[in-house]
Amino acid sequence: MNWGNIDRYAKSLIKEAGHIIRNSFFNQIDIDSKADVNDLVTNIDREVEQFFISRIKRDFPEHRILGEEGFGDVVQTLDGVIWMLDPIDGTMNFVHQKRNFAISLGIYADGVGMLGYIYDVMRDDFYSAAKGEGAYLNDERLPQLEITPLEQAVIGISASWLAPNRYVDNEKIMELVQHCRGTRSYGSAAIELAYVSAGRIDSYISMRLSPWDIAGGMVIAREVGAVASNMQGEAPHLLGQEPFIVARPGLHHDILTNYIRMKE
Ligand code: 2AM
Ligand code: CA
Fold first, then answer.
1. In terms of domains, do 117 and 9 share one?
2. Residues in Cβ contact with 106 at an 8 Å cutoff, skipping those fewer than 6 apart
3. Which residue in 45, 59, 154, 232 has the most C-beta neighbors within 10 A?
4. Which domain holds residue 36?
């Protein structure tokens, strides 16, 4: 497998998809909801996913694609090469703000993250990483993350997890919020993973993410020494929704052991 070629190919595909998304603002966007009324999807999410799939199937017919909008393959094992794609991560931001959304792509071989990309389309910020070769924001290499204690940490977390919910003990999350320096919520898991990797926030936590939300970001985060796991501290299995935390080393362990209590 020539990963250098795949890397160049994927970068140019993502840039092209970015053009499609930016141009979409000149036309009417059709908005639907999926699982519930606040789970939004647009014709652009679907068009962009189909754009990726038609190209990848044409040029890499052996590879499989796991895409949020379901136009790719049904993926039940991580064997072989799998492109895990979210054509628009942060669809609510795309609809309401026309910014703060990203294209998220991770390319895995037998479950190992080889290439990762997060493209913040409106800022034109391109985060990328190849396994063992460091992570980049545009052409600049991102430095290794240093340890930060919780009192000095800024945590990416949605306010939903502070309200009573069926996944996690929200009172422990309230303690976490009181003990850290501050919190932020950007509404795109991919962008939050990119921000952890760039050292702008120190952790990002969510109780329910899908493989395409985290696949690309995990490759980038690993290259700068961030730790990503489920709430048992295990590597995310990437075959369905799961709770997720990424943080600087040390902080990851502190938050998991002292502040996260999952419900059954
Ligand atoms: P999306 O915009 O691609 O749907 C919002 O806080 C973040 O969580 C976004 O990255 C969003 O991805 C993701 N997200 C929202 N609802 C989700 C759900 N029900 N399952 C998994 N991920 C979700
Ligand atoms: Ca999406």
1. yes
2. 83, 84, 113, 115, 116, 117, 212, 214, 215, 216, 217, 218, 219
3. 45
4. 3-141
